[in-house]
TrEMBL record:
Lineage start: Bacteria, Pseudomonadati, Pseudomonadota, Gammaproteobacteria, Vibrionales
Protein name: Putative NAD(P)H nitroreductase
Gene3D superfamilies tied to this protein: NADH Oxidase
Organism: Salinivibrio siamensis
Top-level EC class as recorded in UniProt: oxidoreductase
Chain segments annotated as transmembrane: none
Family matches, as NCBIfam families: PRK10828.1 (NF008088)
Residue span, Nitroreductase domain: 8-161
Pfam family, one: Nitroreductase
Presence of the UniProt keyword Transferase in the record: no
Family statement: Belongs to the nitroreductase family.
Keywords, sorted A to Z: Flavoprotein, FMN, NAD, NADP, Oxidoreductase
Length: 182
């Protein structure tokens, strides 16, 4: 698959199974994330890879956050099961720092670009993924458990694995609704 086809055919695959990326494939995914646009060479990212026991720990973190919110048992169980939708979850954190030429929002966007690059690197190597953020990314207990402080943000949870369903057809989007020229 060439780069343009990869970008134009991108889909989120919501059902993922084992195996997860590993070895050189996982290293390529990480390296793709590390190549994200990065104004000021601040490297404002951290990738927390959860698999095996890490998924179990993430499950506990999310369930505890749901319980802290006063969620009912069904919502707590849904939170507890969320990490197991894939054999690997990568929490992508924007690790920001004050810089007179690089505002915090640029650092957050850079971490988002890293997430996209990682997903595309997974697809290019025969794996698939989907990117979720959701309320737990902003929950104080989840932020604390992942050592997210101050202006740092969890920009998403990138679920990775082997496709376990066919991708949906690409949505048809009329570019004229989204593009203007000056």
């Amino acid at each position: 698959m060439d780069a343009l086809e990869l970008l134009l055919q991108r889909r989120s695959i919501p059902r993922l199974a084992a195996p997860a990326p590993s070895g050189d494939v996982l290293e390529n995914i990480i390296q793709a994330g590390l190549r994200a646009p990065d104004h000021g060479a601040l490297t404002p990212w951290q990738f927390v890879i959860c698999e095996g026991e890490g998924l179990t720990r993430l499950s506990t973190i999310l369930a505890d956050a749901a319980q802290t919110n006063g969620a009912d048992e069904a919502a707590i169980e849904k939170a507890r099961n969320a990490p197991f939708r894939a054999p690997m979850v990568v929490a992508v954190i924007a690790r920001t720092r004050p810089h007179d030429k690089v505002p915090t929002i640029e650092q957050h966007i850079s971490a988002g670009c890293a997430t996209q690059a990682m997903q595309m690197a997974a697809v290019a190597q025969g794996f698939q993924g989907f990117w979720r953020t959701g309320a737990f990314a902003y929950h104080p207990a989840v932020r604390d458990a992942l050592s997210v402080e101050g202006d740092d943000q969890i920009v998403g949870f990138l679920y990775l694995g082997t496709p376990d369903c066919a991708p949906a057809n690409a949505p048809k989007r009329d570019a004229s609704k989204y593009v203007t020229y000056l």
